[in-house]
Amino acid sequence: MSRQAQAEREKLARVLLGQAEQEIAQKFVEAADLYARSPAALQLRAMNIIYETTKERGATILIPTSMVDSMNPAGALGLVAAAGVLPKGA
């Protein structure tokens, strides 16, 4: 009897995991559609990813020059300001 109950629990867990995977995939599709319609949103997301990874001290990040070129000075200053490293008066 306990094997059957365990099998039922595993079955339920797999079904729930499968449903979660479908929901996550749908969210990725929605995000991709949003970013396709708004390149600025994609650029801001990329900048946010860089910011999130640089919050940890000692982090080294290699950024392709094409990505750096696409960031305008105002956006770069915003990223620096968000990180809290902008010198006073700048």
Overview of the molecule:
With 90 residues, this protein is mostly helical. It has one domain (2-78). It has helices at 2-37, 39-54, 65-70, 73-83. The radius of gyration is 21 Å and the shape is elongated.
Secondary structure layout plus pairing:
Blueprint: H1 2-37, H2 39-54, H3 65-70, H4 73-83
User: What would the average pLDDT be, to the nearest integer?
Assistant: 80
Instruction: Work out the helicity level.
Output: over 70%
Contiguous uncertain segments of 5+ residues: none
Helix and strand pattern: HHHH
Shape: elongated
What is this structure, in a nutshell?
The protein is an all-alpha fold.
Keywords:
90 residues, mainly alpha
